[in-house]
Fold 2-methylcitrate dehydratase.
Amino acid sequence: MQTSTVRPHRSEEVFPREEHLAWRIAEVAADPVPVDDDVAEMVVNRVIDNAAVAAASVRRAPVVAARGQAEAHPAAPGATVFGIPGRFSPEWAAWANGTAVRELDFHDTFLAAEYSHPGDNIPPVLAVAQHAGADGAALLRGIVTGYEVQIDLARAISLHAHKIDHVAHLGPSAAAGIGALLGLPVETIYQAIGQALHTTTATRQSRKGEISTWKASAPAFAGKAAIEAVDRAMRGQTSPAPIWEGEDGVIAQLLDGPDARYEVPLPGPGEPKRAILASFTKEHSAEYQAQAWIDLARRLRAEHPEILEPGAVRRIVLHTSHHTHFVIGSGANDPQKYDPTASRETLDHSIPYIVAVALQDGVWDHAASYAPERAARPDTVALWRSITTAEDPEWTRRYHSTDPAEQAFGGRAEIDLADGRTITAEIAVADAHPLGARPFARADYVAKFRTLAAGVVEPEEIERFLAVAQRLPELAPDELAGLTFTATGLPAAPKGLF
């Protein structure tokens, strides 16, 4: 990897375009380096993973609405939309599919200086590949590039520290991925990256307080914006520059200010793009920082059944990282995280709620665990409101560690019982993590798709999709349309403007 030093520049400074971060990313995207076999295998896993969580969400209201918007924009050649036949304008197909993938917060994650869901790159890159008549090998290069860029940005540049939503890394990465897919020149990709970043910087209010349906749509919007940015750049149009480093650019005005300095790692010329292997998927439909806690709660329930007795628990403190405490824990100071009438989007960002339900049920279900009647159970509310979080510097340090063997996203639970005893237990990573008790492999991704698609997608369609997806690197252009599925029992979309 090569490190690019990134800092703001005054307008009068000499700052060659070739030193702009957007240009360096564009060079990475344009580098036609072969894709390693293990990276290609992981891309297949994540395409299956995306389809699995999309199948589980395809009847939910935000997804139905987004699909309706796409249906209003048929196109030829066009791109496919999860759940329905036909071809649609690629930016709208990416919007609908991106919303479906993100709705349940159930696909892959990467956490470092910033957090991300790099699987959000797949819907826009795939939509453009289908529309442009690309083959599986080109699609593979595009997806690998999108993952690489988003993860490398997340390694170096924190957005949430300045209350900027993490999709500001996704717009540029999706534009880079599309550029790699299409084999565009560096100049064109550079312009697309600039516009994609410029149009996808927004505040974190979409993930704060009473979280709305926009949470699922924000990444889909970034993917749609990236497609439009590429289209504009291909027509010879230019974008704000230097977008990160300008005197009024993103870093100086939205992030660490005019004296900021970041060290962004990027592959050098001819170096393979392998960042996807640093990301990890979810076994449970909840914020990634909740994954390990769900697994620990299930273990505690089995080992200490006495904690399920009415009134047995006096209080529970979850000692964890800064991010977990302040984003999904009691440190967020969001009363909604303890509200039984809160939205699903809010509950999946409430670690006190998630731990309470996982302790009581011993399982986690993407629908039943968030049902209003489940959240309103009096015994659940009582246990839920006895749970708080606390930042532990050591868990914060491990959260930010660059050593995969040390990096951790869990913490230590202290359960004070009414009889005076205290139960303590800790967990570093989720069971499904590469270093966890049961690391996810191809069979687990396939099983996840079959499980989540059951009752939504016909059995023959499930197997057809899996057969096509597992041949992704060798697919011919006319076969890329098979990387979708049709579903049954879909509700009609509400009427809007289109």
Notes: The domain at 288-427 is CATH 3.30.1330.120 (60s Ribosomal Protein L30; Chain: A;).
